[in-house]
Amino acid sequence: MNNKITIHHITRVEGHGNILVDIKDGKIEKVLWEIIEAPRFFEAMVRGRHYTEVARITSRICGICSVGHSITSVKATEDALGIKISEQTEVLRKILLHSENFDSHILHIYFLVAPDLFGAPSVFPLLEGAKEVVLRALKMKNLAHQWGAILAGRTTHPTKIVPGGFSTIPTKEDLLKIKEIILELIPEMEKTLETLSTVLDKIPAFERDTEYMALWNGKEYPLYDGKIQTILSSGEKTLYPVEKYRECTNEYLVEHSTAKFTKNKLDSLMVGALARFNNNYEFLHPEAKKVAEKLGLRPVFTNPFFNTVAQAIECVHSLYDSLEMVEKLIKEGIKEEEIPKPSKYGKGIAVVEVPRGILMHEYEYDEEGYCKGANCIIPTNQNHGNIQKDMEAYLPYLIKEKVSKEELELKLEMLVRAYDPCISCSTHFLKVRFK
Amino acid sequence: MKKKIAFFDFTCCEGCQVELTNLGADKFAGLLNLVEFVEFREVMSEKTGETIDISFIEGSFSREKDRERLIKIRERSKIVVAYGSCATLGGINALKHRKEGWKEFVYGDANFEILNSSKALPISSVIKVDYCLHGCPINREEFLKMAIDLVMDKEPLIPNYPVCVQCKVNETVCRYLLNECCLGLVARAGCGAPCPKDGIPCEACRGFVDNPNLEALKEVIKDKKLQEKLYLFTSNQMEEKDEQ
Amino acid sequence: MAVFYYFLKEKDFPAFFKKLLKKGEVYGPKAKGDFFVFDKLKKLEELRLDYDVTILPPKKIISPPEETLLHFSKEGAQSPKEVEEKVLFGVHFYDIKAIDMLDLLFQENFPDSIYLSKRKKTTIIGSSIERISKRAFWGSVGKHIGPQGHDGFFTKIKDGYLYETLTEKGEKLLKYGEFQPANSDQIKEAKKKNKEIMEKCPEKLIWDSSTIAKTVRENFKSPLWEILSKKCFSCGTCNMVCPTCYCFDVQDYFNFDGETGTRKRHWDGCLLEDFAKITLGGGACENFRGKRYERYRHRAMRKTAYLNTKLGGPACVGCGRCSMQCVPDIADPVNIIKSFMEVK
Amino acid sequence: MKNPFIPRKAIIEKITYLTEKEAHLLLKVDEKGFSYKPGQFIEVGLFGFGEIPIGFASSPNRLPYFEIVVRNVGRVSGAIHKLKEKDEIYFRGPLGNGFDVDFMKGKNILIVAGGIGLCPTRSLIQYILDNRKDFKDFVLFYGTKTPQEQLFQEDLSNWRVMKEINFCETVDKPSPDWKGNVGVITTLFKKVPINPDSIVVICGPPIMYKFVMAELSGIGIPKKHVFVDLERRMKCGIGKCGHCQINDKYVCTDGPVFRFSEIENLEEAL
Ligand SMILES: Cc1cc2nc3c(=O)[nH]c(=O)nc-3n(C[C@H](O)[C@H](O)[C@H](O)COP(=O)(O)OP(=O)(O)OC[C@H]3O[C@@H](n4cnc5c(N)ncnc54)[C@H](O)[C@@H]3O)c2cc1C
Ligand code: SF4
Ligand code: SF4
Ligand code: SF4
């Protein structure tokens, strides 16, 4: 088998990446996951900016998880400036993170992955054969967006997330609307799971020992706050304080990538839905656990293709967990709150789970509240190395199975897509350097 | 026959595409009544060889190697719309021009070919752009209106009045009445003024109206550091004005 | 119809208003942060009769910022559906005066059925001014003209409200509350209150409107216009917030079928750059008020002089909204008028 | 109450292109009782695109047929240019004040038309020719930038030879085969003596008015005998939208035809 495979601008992923494979006489000469997204230099951009503007700038790193970027950014800014947020703000932020997690997962499951499982090049041709699936996807995507928009203003580049809380606090009517949306989404999610279970067998079988990294706080399935934990296939867990984050996500630049790669214990690591699932299975909402059982997922699950399935499980968790929080807020009543002012100036750091994994922002501010330096570590960056290693392990297997070139291409693309890589995001930060 | 439309992206966050996926089933299906999507990398694997009726381009032009791709798109398209402020103005990407040594700052001393990036410029700096749909991100309703107009062969309406007009329609309390500053006075409307409405200032993400009164703005916003706001999304436009 | 006077006890007001709310749509002043807006009221507690001035005038309820003129399809055009009856409650006299002007302007020549049918369905109930806005000058502008188009008027007096009815629509409200015929002291007290408040505005014009009109007109070519308008952003705020501004743009919108759709009008403003611009073809344009000061001057002329013959007085009611909301603070009619009246 | 924004229907019977940019439409209305005066206009449009003010270009004597000329300059006019014969078109009107033809009757008439200004005046020209005996001398000055921009070629060749009309034309920039006068429109006043008791109608680009007025006052024609046809941005055509306001006048309802004496002291009018 002699083959040169180059997939330029791989489709149905966020951002631009290429897959390069050279096979000679059945031997792999080169496998490369190449990141070609244009670099954008956000760390430089926020320098000299007032703390009230920073989150709105870093939100522009990524249009898919801009809520996550905004929340992480204001959280780091609050840490740097000694701004203490209220409990209400924290709950609202948690609901908001759920909404984005849900929103982004739905986009990934339906628009990016489903076509592969249904054997279509995109979601649009499905309008012919599986119209209700497409309409359901659009409906769910829009409802999820509305859910987030009630709290964040816009979900792409939020208008209401500011250091200290929310520039406009939702009213009781708003919360009732969120509840209504969630209740409308639950049956749609059930149908989604039904659809998913009919195509489970289309997901390739492939396992590789991997180090999974996620937030952990021993109380909940954490998105907003926690320490960093990794779990190996053996079940061995290690906990790291947030400040050690940079050390356990050793970053390195590679020549073929505008994004940087990371590694910890093994030569690569994975973050995202499957990593969270493996680390925090016990804290999933019972409804989500039921679904996991039905779909046959137990921790530690080491097939990266099942990241999509883990996302579906998280969707269920996000719905029920949010519903409980919203109902509690409605019952206890929502209060108008003043936005607290800075009490100090200095450095601050925040880690938050966003749809694709752990996101870290770190800033330093001067006495007037202007930004002196910034650093962000993006989840997809942490996965790039794992994608590369997975491809290296998966390719020989595919060659042994003697699959056609087209099949090989498709399978590699599916592997990349399973990670839901957000490449546009991952190219904007690299080096920590405070001036 | 349905018009063929396509979406392309360059240096950007892809948020404008995401906004399209938020249209909802009714509007999306409605749009598909009028048009056929022929290329949309983020959600489609299909590619087309045929002429495209309308190409929507997102993202700014920030490195030489993208030039050829842009020229090819222009050749294949009857109408080119730059959508999103990255594409129409250079957008937030151009903010880096305000900073010395931006490349070294982010990527250290690494000097790989792939990192090469020049100034972030609007798409119109490379190819002829027929219409601009401003915004960071775009306003979905404005997109729909423009899409329908273009499909119907109608000259789309692009507002040339400031955001304040839409703020009034929303009956938002002006930021200045709250002793804060805002760029809505010089920013091109069309977004529906969501920022002041939600409690944050307008930062002119859609660029300026044709004749912004920047001298007056500098009298209204006296603080030099606050005046830096004028470079947030409108760095390229300001550079032009500063040169004059 | 003759004018009748009733009295409603303070303690009976809540019951009255709650009943009114139950019977149909009621729009009234409510708080928005530290400011006020007219909005649909859902409960009594929202009503703020102690408001000073609202951000937008109540005209928005009769002539909204965006309004359908017709629906179209292959078969032709169809008028929009008629709106529901509504009550506009708590309107200050200056805003009623402004609505009177709109009534006249939309009625003359070709009566505008879109406006007039909405107007007919609106019961306007005025209320006395309990708090004076910082930039008000309604006490001294077009003094010889009083409000006319309202159906009833509430004045807060000792222990309750004097309710004055001018029309049958105004009388209809009586059935919702424990109204009693008012006695002459109560009537006198209300009259006195409404008269005295006229002297309390923070800003004041000391000239009568025809002198102002004449002087401002004579100064059409004055270099002062350019100086006054130097900081103008052409933002149109002074137009949008003015109760007597009514200019509009018309645009068509297709539905997804590419066949049906609507023709709508939107508020427009003579301060906006393209307001008087025409296209001549071959890329050429002509803007009849292309310069900032020309547009600025046009509004000032319109408020002080142009419409005076038609309206019997100036097209400004002194609400002070433009004064308050113009960011560079150059739109205040009092200041503009003063600059011309006081130069020698 | 009638909704004044609801338009009526007309059928396009014929489209010819006077130039690349100017479409000449022959329309037919079936409604009985529809009539207008020369100088009035309609708001004509297409659903989904909008409406624009366009003057009548033919005499009301030819109803139920009437003509308009639309220059392609933008959104609505561009859409009208894409229509075909037998298509429907919608319009509201007649709107505005036309020429006071009763006042003009029994008098000498001079029409000064520049460029596209010939279209709205053509309704008056036709009207005068149709009722020629009601008027005394009839002079028409027509100026364009180039010979190619001359509209209504067929009419022009008729008028050149007709006794009923003294037709004088000029161009700013001649083509090689141009045999007529060269120069701005006021140069025609040197060629043709104008009776001081004439009634004059001026219609053309704004800049033209000043120069023509200077000539007329030289001849001694009183300003109240001069009619001008003004153009302003318009949206409603019924005196509401405010765009066409000049001072205390609305061009759409008080005009578009004004006596010069009415507007000469009106700032921003000319
Ligand atoms: C009384 C009157 C009679 C006219 N008669 C004719 C005629 O016989 N033939 C002809 O070709 N043109 C005539 N015009 C000019 C014609 O109305 C404009 O060319 C037309 O409005 C341009 O509209 P558009 O949508 O194609 O252009 P755009 O540039 O897209 O214009 C947008 C809008 O601006 C307004 N507008 C732009 N230009 C003008 C203008 N010149 N006059 C008025 N409103 C304008 C309109 O409301 C228009 O819808 C007349 C204008 C007036 C006021
Ligand atoms: S808040 Fe900003 S956009 Fe709104 S009116 Fe004030 S200056 Fe204008
Ligand atoms: S006068 Fe003031 S409110 Fe009016 S357009 Fe100018 S800046 Fe805006
Ligand atoms: S001009 Fe100003 S003060 Fe007068 S009515 Fe209008 S907004 Fe009120």
Describe the structure in your own words.
The complex is a heterotetramer of chains A (435), B (244), C (344) and D (270). Chain B has 244 residues and is an alpha/beta fold. Chain B contains eleven helices and five strands, in the order βααββαβααβαααααα. Chain B has helices at 15-21, 25-34, 67-76, 85-89, 102-107, 140-151, 163-170, 194-198, 214-220, 224-227, 235-243; strands at residues 3-9, 35-40, 52-58, 77-83, 131-133. Chain B has a five-stranded parallel beta sheet with strand order 2-1-3-4-5. In chain B, β3, α3 and β4 form a beta-alpha-beta unit. By secondary structure, chain C is an alpha+beta fold. Chain C has an eight-stranded mixed beta sheet with strand order 3-2-6-7-8-9-1-10, sandwiched between helices. In chain C, strands 5-4-12-11 form a four-stranded antiparallel beta sheet, with no helix packed on it. Chain C is globular, with a radius of gyration of 22 Å. The longest helix of chain D is centred in the C-terminal third of the chain and has 14 residues, at 206-219. Chain D has 270 residues and is α/β, with parallel strands linked by helices. A seven-stranded mixed beta sheet of chain D has the order 10-9-8-7-11-12-15, with helices on both faces. A six-stranded antiparallel beta sheet of chain D has the order 4-3-6-1-2-5, with helices on one face. A two-stranded antiparallel ribbon of chain D has the order 13-14. Chains in contact: A-B, B-C, B-D, C-D. Flavin-adenine dinucleotide (FAD) binds at residues 41, 50, 52-55, 68-71, 73-78, 116, 119-120, 231-235, 256 of chain D.
Key terms for this structure?
heterotetramer, A: 435 residues, alpha+beta, four-stranded mixed β-sheet, three-stranded antiparallel β-sheet, 14 helices, 14 strands, 46% helix, 17% strand, globular, D: 270 residues, alpha/beta, seven-stranded mixed β-sheet, six-stranded antiparallel β-sheet, 8 helices, binds flavin-adenine dinucleotide, binds iron/sulfur cluster
Hetero groups: flavin-adenine dinucleotide, iron/sulfur cluster
Uncertain spans of chain A: 426-435
* Cα Rg of chain A: 21 Å
What's the helix-strand series of chain D? EEEEEHEHEHEHEEHEHEEEHEH
Decide which structural class fits the backbone of chain D. Answer: alpha/beta
The percent range for strand residues of chain D is 25-35%
Q: How many helical stretches of chain A?
A: 14
Look at the helices and sheets of chain A and give the structural class: alpha+beta
Instruction: Give the tally of β-strands of chain A.
Output: 14
Distance between the termini of chain D: 37 Å
Strand content of chain A: 15-25%
State the shape of chain D: globular
Structural Rg of chain D: 18 Å
Uncertain runs of chain D are none
Mean pLDDT across all amino acids of chain A: 86
Shape of chain A: globular
> Widest sheet of chain A: strand order?
8-7-6-11
Which pair of chains has the greatest number of interface residues, and how are they split between the two chains?
A: A-B, 69 and 64 residues
What letter string, H or E per element, gives the SSE order of chain A? Answer: EEEHHHHHHEEHEEEHEEEHHHEEEHHH
